[in-house]
């Protein structure tokens, strides 16, 4: 058999494909980041299963819908954060509440601060009572705005220090009933 014509067609096809390495690596990073962040919170989907759900849009047998939603919601929330960064939006309460709403879609009612008092398992820290959460979040966003404004300046703080402060301060407030650590990770990238 002569495969010359088939080989020529294959070569022509492959030379016309436009492979964008940046898009490829961004997609790989997004899948890996989603997998690792949701796994830290107890999600049992493997990296391959996360890829199947996000990239191939294939459901995974034997897993709860909550775990599938955690993965799809995290990916959507990260996409929203990237859009905010792309458009140079300052992090504010509206963005934080929107991230929460996206993360909790089809899991819990999201988009509002917690109305109950919570405890952080394994921690001696007591988050503010629910009535004080809105004021604590307002102050957090104001402080973050001030720190972000001077980040990178000689008198300012380093971006890594800002990311660590953002995550620690947010998680200490624990403004939501669920998903605070995951949102804290999202905020570090904003």
Q: Share of helix among residues?
A: 55-70%
Rg from alpha-carbon coordinates: 21 Å
CATH topology: Fic-like fold
Q: What would you give as the CATH superfamily? A: Fido-like domain
- The number of domains: 1
Number of H- or I-type helical stretches: 8
Sheet/helix structural class: mainly alpha
Instruction: State the shape.
Output: globular
Largest sheet: none
Strand content: under 5%
- Name the helix and strand elements from N-terminus to C-terminus, one letter apiece: HHHHHHHH
CATH class: Mainly Alpha
Report the span from N to C terminus: 58 Å
Number of strands: 0
If classified by CATH, what would the architecture be?
A: Orthogonal Bundle
Mean residue pLDDT? 90
Low-confidence stretches: none
Topology:
Elements: H1 4-16, H2 21-40, H3 47-54, H4 65-86, H5 93-104, H6 133-150, H7 159-173, H8 180-189
Helix pairs in contact: 2-3, 2-4, 4-5, 4-8, 6-7, 7-8
């Amino acid at each position: 058999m002569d495969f010359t014509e088939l080989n020529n067609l294959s070569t022509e096809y492959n030379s016309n494909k436009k492979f964008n390495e940046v898009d490829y690596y961004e997609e790989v990073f997004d899948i890996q980041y989603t997998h690792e962040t949701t796994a830290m919170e107890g999600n049992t989907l493997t990296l391959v299963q996360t890829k199947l759900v996000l990239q191939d849009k294939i459901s995974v047998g034997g897993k709860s819908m909550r775990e599938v939603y955690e993965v799809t919601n995290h990916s959507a929330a990260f996409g929203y954060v990237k859009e905010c960064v792309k458009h140079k939006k300052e992090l504010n309460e509206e963005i934080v509440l929107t991230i929460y709403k996206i993360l909790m879609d089809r899991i819990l009612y999201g988009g509002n601060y917690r109305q109950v008092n919570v405890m952080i398992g394994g921690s001696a820290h007591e988050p503010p009572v629910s009535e004080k959460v809105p004021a604590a979040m307002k102050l957090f966003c104001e402080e973050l705005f001030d720190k972000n404004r001077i980040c990178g300046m000689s008198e300012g703080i380093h971006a890594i220090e800002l990311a660590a402060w953002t995550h620690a301060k947010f998680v200490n407030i624990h403004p939501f009933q669920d998903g605070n650590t995951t949102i804290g990770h999202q905020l570090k990238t904003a």
